[in-house]
Design goal:
Elements lengths: L1 H18 L20 E4 L4 E3 L9 E5 L6 H12 L1 H6 L3 E6 L3 H10 L6 E3 L4 H5 L14 E4 L5 E5 L7 H12 L5
Parallel strand pairs: 3-4, 4-5
Antiparallel strand pairs: 1-2, 1-5, 3-6, 6-7
Length: 181
C-alpha cells in the first residue's frame, strides 16, 4: 500500500515540474548570473584550453553545436571563421564546442579553414555541466554562453541563427561590455 502512495506522489511531483514548464534536466542548467562551469578541453589546434586561463584577463564566448560536418553546424562554424578578424579585434576568447572527438573536430576545423579552436568534449562532462547535453539529448543544444572575465555567465543565447552566429556574437559582446579593454 505504501509503495503505491509513494509512486503516486513521485508521479504527481513530476507532473508539477512538467506543468510548470520546467524539464527535469533544466534544474541543473546554469543561469545568467551563475559562475560558469569550469572546463579544460582540447582544441582543434592541439592545445588545451581552461576557463581559468582567462580569469581576470578576458571574457569568453562558448558556442556549443550539435555535430561536426552537419548542415547547421557547418554554417555556424563557417560564420566564426569568416568573422575571425572582427572577433579577435574585440579581445575576447571565443570557441565553438561539441562532443565530437578532437580528431573529428580537427578535420572539421581544417575543412572550414577555421582560425579559432573548436573544443572537444567527447565524455560529455562539460556539456552536461553547461546543460546542453541532458536526458533525451545526446548531442549538445545549439546554445552560446557569454562569460565575463570574472567567470560569470552574462547571457545565454538559445536562439542561435547559424549563418550569422559570429555577427550576433560580436554585437552581444559589445552590448554586454565583456570585451577586454
Amino acid at each position: 500500500m505504501n509503495r503505491r502512495i509513494g509512486r503516486k506522489v513521485s508521479w504527481f511531483g513530476i507532473g508539477i515540474v512538467l506543468a510548470s514548464g520546467m524539464t527535469l534536466a533544466s534544474a541543473a542548467e546554469p543561469k545568467v548570473g551563475d559562475p560558469a562551469p569550469a572546463f579544460k578541453l582540447e582544441g582543434s589546434d592541439g592545445k588545451t584550453y581552461e576557463l581559468s586561463d582567462f580569469k581576470g584577463k578576458s571574457g569568453v564566448v562558448l558556442a556549443w553545436f550539435p555535430k561536426a560536418f552537419t548542415g547547421g553546424c557547418t554554417k555556424e562554424c563557417k560564420s566564426f571563421a569568416a568573422a575571425g578578424e572582427s572577433l579577435r579585434g574585440l579581445k575576447i576568447a571565443y570557441f565553438t564546442a561539441s562532443v565530437d572527438t578532437s580528431e573529428l573536430n580537427k578535420k572539421f576545423a581544417e575543412s572550414l579553414s577555421c582560425d579559432y579552436p573548436i573544443l572537444s568534449d567527447p565524455d560529455k562532462s562539460v556539456a552536461k555541466a553547461y546543460g546542453v547535453v541532458h536526458e533525451g539529448r545526446a548531442v549538445p543544444e545549439r546554445w552560446t554562453f557569454y562569460i565575463d572575465k570574472e567567470g560569470v555567465i552574462k547571457a545565454i543565447d538559445k536562439q542561435v541563427k547559424t549563418e550569422q552566429a559570429a555577427e550576433d556574437v560580436a554585437a552581444k559582446v559589445k552590448e554586454l561590455g565583456i570585451a577586454a579593454k
